[in-house]
Amino acid sequence: MKQYRAYCFDLDGTVYKGTEVIEVAAETIRCLQQKGIEPYFITNNASVNREDVEKKLAKMGITAVRERIYTTAVASALYCAEHHASSRIYLYGEEGLRKAFAEQNLHVVGPEEADVAVVGINRNSTYESLSEVMNVIRNGATFIATNSDKIIPTATGFGVGNGSFIRLLAHATGIEPLYIGKPESTMLELVRESGGYTKDEMVMIGDNYDTDILCGIRYEIDTIHVAGGVHSKEQIQERELQPTYFVNTLTEII
Fold first, then answer.
1. pLDDT of 152-188, one tens digit each?
2. Three-state DSSP class for 160?
3. Most buried by CB count within 10 Å: which residue of 92, 120, 165, 253?
4. What is the bridge-based pairing of β-strands 142-145 and 20-21?
5. Is residue 85 located within the same domain as residue 175?
6. Beta pairing, strands 116-119 & 88-92
7. What is the CATH number of the domain that holds 123?
8. How many Cα atoms occupy the beta-carbon half-sphere of 139 within 13 Å?
9. Global confidence as pTM
């Protein structure tokens, strides 16, 4: 297999499942680090920021460089810092989203003042809170969604993902959001810019075709699908666009 300078790992389903590390993933990451290659970690989870992910990985025996962690909370904040630096931003999400925007010193406001509405996963959503953010969007705020995941892995199976809430809001407002997370390429572009890489030096690694693999394909970099996650090899082989590689275990990439 070709060697790369920027290995971009999905997290949940690829490096760990919930709170349980996937040991072969941890072994693979350590092998890359022994070769002098620090990987990137890319997750659609908007409820966490870089520090949260760094601490979680450390508990699993994986050392991560904080600046090489990209959550959709971080990516959304970086996007808004570039494109909406002077805007008044309403955040609908959890603590990781609020921390990421605070780190960029962005102007976060209440629902009555907002020019921009950024919507991430909010597991405390209620009818009232969803109605509030719906009205912020209906009143003219630019609609940004951290990600479009319909479901998310949980310890007992799957839970409702941010994308399902986004579809509710899009239906209620008649407005489609700008998506930040995979399969959109915002986070991969941030990686490329941060390291000065060319696209042929990058690879996206994950278990989910609709997010991880499509993200890499659309960004025109190589992709590695890892078995045992959301989509099987057989399911993916029915798709028009194929990953660069299929592997049964991550140790095959080193």
1. 877 677 889 999 999 999 999 999 999 999 999 999 9
2. strand
3. 120
4. unpaired
5. yes
6. parallel
7. 3.40.50.1000
8. 14
9. 0.90
